[in-house]
Design the sequence.
């Protein structure tokens, strides 16, 4: 059962319970304030007046519950709109960065094959600071509305892991651009690979070794905690990719659970 059905059911029970309570009050009033000796006509008139009183009193009570339910629904729709926008922005950044990462994965075979990646450039531009700032603003609004910090915490983790992988990719890009230019691959078809011709590998031995080194080495990063203390840690390229993917999936899962699609 989704959240919309839950709210409808909750409203239904609130109305039933409130009307039942009013009927009970009317019945108690009738029992304790009606003369048993009075005729049926008088008793009927009293009962009719009490039912009218009950219906009259129920009208503003029902209106209050309907308004309260409408307000909750509007708040939910606003939060849902925020989360959908946040998800769209996160997905756009995830796809751009992941595309660069998938290209970089092919460099693991660069020792044995010429790897042609004409689109493996401008890595730093794949992380758009304006979009990440907009994501922060949306996550902050959600935190203010709900009083929960889980979305903004996951968003900040996604920020950190995005920075990690982009930082490493940018270093790989520098070495690959040297490799690319030395082999004059500008006119080659993108995303192709072939065996090295005689003498080609010797031209780019330094770049090949540096790329292999960057793919396997541990890079040092740090994060600052709430107390202002820096915590240093080391991760490899593959670990950075996994952390980036995992943080996005955690953010996505939480957004979906909050929306309850």
Sequence:
């Amino acid at each position: 059962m989704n959240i919309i059905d839950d709210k409808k059911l909750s409203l239904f029970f609130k109305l039933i319970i409130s009307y039942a309570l009013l009927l009970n009050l009317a019945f108690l009033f009738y029992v304790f304030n009606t003369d048993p000796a009075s005729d049926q006509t008088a008793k009927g008139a009293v009962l009719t007046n009490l039912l009218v009183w009950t219906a009259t009193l129920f009208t503003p009570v029902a209106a209050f519950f309907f308004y309260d339910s409408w307000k909750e629904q509007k708040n939910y729709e606003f939060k849902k709109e925020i989360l959908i926008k946040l998800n769209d922005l996160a997905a756009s950044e995830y796809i751009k960065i992941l595309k660069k990462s998938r290209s970089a994965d092919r460099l693991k075979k660069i020792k044995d094959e010429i790897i042609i990646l004409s689109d493996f450039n401008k890595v730093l531009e794949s992380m758009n600071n304006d979009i990440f700032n907009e994501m922060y603003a949306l996550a902050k609004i959600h935190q203010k509305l709900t009083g929960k910090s889980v979305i903004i915490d996951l968003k900040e983790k996604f920020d950190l892991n995005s920075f990690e992988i982009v930082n490493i990719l940018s270093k790989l890009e520098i070495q690959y651009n040297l490799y690319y230019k030395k082999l004059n691959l500008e006119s080659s078809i993108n995303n192709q690979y072939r065996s090295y011709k005689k003498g080609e590998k010797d031209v780019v031995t330094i770049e090949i070794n540096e790329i292999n080194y960057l793919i396997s080495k541990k890079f040092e990063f740090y994060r600052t905690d709430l107390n202002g203390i820096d915590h240093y840690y080391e991760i490899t390229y593959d670990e950075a990719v996994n952390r980036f993917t995992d943080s996005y999936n955690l953010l996505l899962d939480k957004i979906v659970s909050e929306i309850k699609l």
DSSP finds seven helices and four strands in the chain.
